[in-house]
Amino acid sequence: MSGSSKSSLQINEVGSHDYAVRAKLNAQSGDVTLAMSLDFNTPREKIVKEVAGKRYMGALLTSDAIKTSRLLLRKLRADGAKTLNVTGNSISTLVIHNLTQEKANEQVYAVLSPVHKLYPIRKIFSGGSSGVDLAAAVCGMVLGIETVVTTPTDLKQVTIDQIQYGAGQLKKHLRTTEAA
Hints:
Layout: E1 9-14, H1 19-29, E2 32-37, H2 43-52, E3 56-60, H3 65-79, E4 83-88, H4 91-96, H5 101-118, E5 123-127, H6 132-142, E6 146-152, E7 156-158, E8 164-166, H7 167-179
Parallel strand pairs: 1-6, 2-3, 2-4, 4-5, 5-6
Antiparallel strand pairs: 7-8
Helix pairs in contact: 1-2, 3-5, 5-6, 6-7
């Protein structure tokens, strides 16, 4: 992944541990919600679809990136959208399907990069979970898009390697990942 310019990263810490509260905040903040998942029947994915309503677009994470990019571009243009909420399965669901964090990062990048080149995205909203949420934050930064990550105040992010990151450490981890 190679970026076009520097972006800003904002960690939006909220007091609630209720995923629905954070999902609603992100879905209401983004003009469109893109859910890139392998399993759309998890409680998280059902909440996201419900709260995003007509602004929702679901895409299988392993689908052809160019086709998904075209569909997203159409949706953004049709809705006059300038901001995007990106969500999807956490790493615990992805590993069941033999998908790593790195592969999730690559796939999200492969979808967002051509869209951003043709129709600049002003801001990406994402949750703080590992998996697709984390991939969206990394890709936003790499692409030079202002990125807002919403997490519980005392979030402990656990990676596939069982490394824990607090919300403050998450920002440092994302910057390290972006540089790699």
